[in-house]
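We read letters as residues; the fold follows as tokens. A sample entry reads:
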Amino acid sequence: MVGKKKAAMLLCTVLVGGILAGCGKSATDSNNGGAASSAVKNIGVIQLVQHDALDASNKGFVDGLKEKGYEEGKNIKIEQQNAQGEQANAQTIAKQFTDAKKDLIFAIATPAVQAAYNSTKDIPIIFTAVTDPVKAEVAKDWKSSGTNVTGTSDKVPVDKQIELLKKLLPNAKTVGVIYNTSETNSVTQVDELKAAADKQGLAVKEIGVTNVNEINQNLASALGQIDVLYTPTDNTVASGYALVGKLCLDKNVPIIGAEEAVVTKGGLASIGIDYYKLGKEAGYKAAEVLDGKKPSDVEISTLSDMSFTINTDVVKKLNITLPADIESNCKKVTGGVE
């Protein structure tokens, strides 16, 4: 009888131990599941090339995420990669991010988002500094992309820039436009420029380049045929703003730019967008996606507020008289004049 009692007690001990062990395992599994659900999100950034506008967009994106509760070193890990202006590099980076199964890819500039979209149709992609995502064939519509892509566009009203040009330079007859002929966003802007210029009675001379090294020769040979140069939001040209500014100032040719960075490098004026704000808006959209929204449910947007900038050093060098309404309402900068 005693033997049976001992056996029964031993059996109970084993059973209780097993149950406790099972409970312990269950608790551990549950904890692991919770950790997985709150795991650090991995974000890959493809920046096409380094220049002021794209750098500002990149910083704005990180700051926008932080404002929405996603901070580097806490709940997100950001891997920054720069394609150095080469489409092939952008494609390689995009494949690396896809193979690494990043939680989200941030693409800065049109060739970067095209590379990312060509690499994955599953990983969410947020873009910025892309003029027309539909023409770039990464979205089917602005309101709902219908793809794994959304973001913020740097599309600006070219007609407003031409109006500014005419107001500052009423005697101008021919406007040159320098751009990379292989950048979809730039081709779109040049088409819009030609339509806007025609309405104002301006002739347009296209100055095409395919890389930064061609700027010197191609622009220098065209300066004698134009009264003013227009620079769209072109990544190749933006990388060479200092050279563009010097070449134009040497020949007393004013520059009207689609974004502020060219003005600090010797351009005359710009009416365009703030790329830091544009990047921050992209950061907000990325936070929505990380929170669980599909990219196709997040509308692609542009910035409505424009920044108006004048380089007072260039105004003096070129002996330009600013209309009173422009002088009182613009942001004044200096630089680019030797």
The mean pLDDT is 89. The radius of gyration is 27 Å. The chain has two domains: 41-154+275-302, 158-273+306-333. The CA atoms of residues 122 and 203 lie 45 Å apart.
